[in-house]
Amino acid sequence: MTEIVASNPEVREFKSYPPKPRKLTGSSIAILVFLTMCAAFVAIPLYVIIVTSLKDMAQIRFGDIFSLPEVWTLEPWRVAWDEVCSGVTCEGVKIGFFNSIMILIPSLILSIGLSAVTGYALALWNVKWAGTFLFILFTAAFVPFQIIMIPLIIMSGIIKVYGTVWGVAIVHAVLAMPLLTLIFRNYYKDIPSEIMNAAIMDSGSFWKIFGEIILPMSGNIMIVVLILQITSIWNDFLIGLTFGGIGTKPMTVILANSVITSRGEVTYNVDMAAALLTAIPPLLIYFVLGKFFVQGITAGAIKG
Q1: DSSP character for 10?
Q2: pLDDT tens digits for 107-144?
Q3: Domains of the chain
Q4: pLDDT above 90 covers what percent of the chain?
Q5: How far apart are CA 181 and CA 266, in angstroms?
Q6: 132-138 contact pairs (CB < 8 A, 24+)
Q7: pTM score, two decimals?
């Protein structure tokens, strides 16, 4: 099918739809090869982990890590969930899974709630010393956690939250504040000033404007920070190890303990199944909310 396109009254050209596919060039082939290598770098180890978790130990001992299971079994997954040992306890990674859920929910509420309000105030209200505060936040975003770890331990001990779920959640919220505040501030900066002026003229208070106007407009950016925070909090190891108590260790700590705990034969299939059980939740979040993440980014999440 063709369409006549007139660029001016005297010149007409025929344009075909759909456009013809471009011919492969040297540069495009090089890009495809590079992308294929990058994909294989991630996909091949993931394939090995998956097939190993579905094999029995008799086949694993032969050392052919790329072969498909001769006997498909989900027994390693059951053992990893219910029976794998972490230190002296053998209750599976399910204990760490529920601990991670208990850590994740308050961490999300604190970090996203505080950052959204702070970014809203810095972007749309005349806050004294806002520029200085933003500079301090920007600087704090690049401070390694290990530098401030001991002061945070002392402070969490003073307020009696060290070794609790709330202690881990508060630390996650504190460490996320700089980056998330900057993201929210840049997003809210694009809201037209006419909307804020009209809201203030209608006797809108700080919290009323935030709850009735700003939050309903924040769907895209909320998805972005939600994905960032879920991935960061769920995959965290050091904060959970340092600030979590004996009964509040997250799933990553339970996984590490189960791998280094030796009770005779090393069951590689169980270790691989436990690793996959730990990785599944953030992967599901990406599959479900991935397209919304892209929409949030393109809507101005990191514009500045």
Answers
A1: S
A2: 999 999 999 999 898 888 887 887 788 888 888 888 88
A3: 1-47 (no CATH), 94-301 (1.10.3720.10)
A4: 15
A5: 45
A6: 134/182, 134/185, 137/177, 137/178, 137/181, 137/182, 138/178, 138/182
A7: 0.78
Question: Looking at residues 181-203, what average pLDDT do you find?
Answer: 83
- Judged against a pLDDT cut of 80, whether residue 290 lies above it is answered with no
Q: Kindly report, residue by residue over 243-268, the tens digit of the pLDDT.
A: 887 777 888 888 887 777 656 677 88
Q: 28 to each of 22, 114, 227, how far by Cα in Å?
A: 10, 46, 32
Which residues, other chains included, contact 191 with Cβ-Cβ below 8 Å and sequence gap of 6+? 123, 124, 214, 217
CA distance 200 to 213: 11
Integer Cα distance of 107 and 229 in angstroms: 8
* pLDDT given at position 47: 92
pLDDT for the residue 304: 44
The CB density around residue 263, as the number of other CB atoms within 10 Å, is 9
Query: In degrees rounded to 5, what are phi and psi of residue 280?
Result: -60, -45
Burial class (CB in 10 A: 0-12, 13-18, 19+), 174: middle
Work out the number of other CB atoms within 10 angstroms of the CB of residue 251.
Answer: 27
Distance of CA 236 to the CA centre of its chain: 10
Q: Which residue has the tokens 């072969």?
A: 67
Count the helices and strands in the chain (H runs, E runs). 13, 2
Query: What pLDDT is recorded for position 51?
Result: 92
Question: Among 80, 84, 104, which Cα is nearest to 235's?
Answer: 104
- Inform me whether the pLDDT recorded for 2 exceeds 60: no
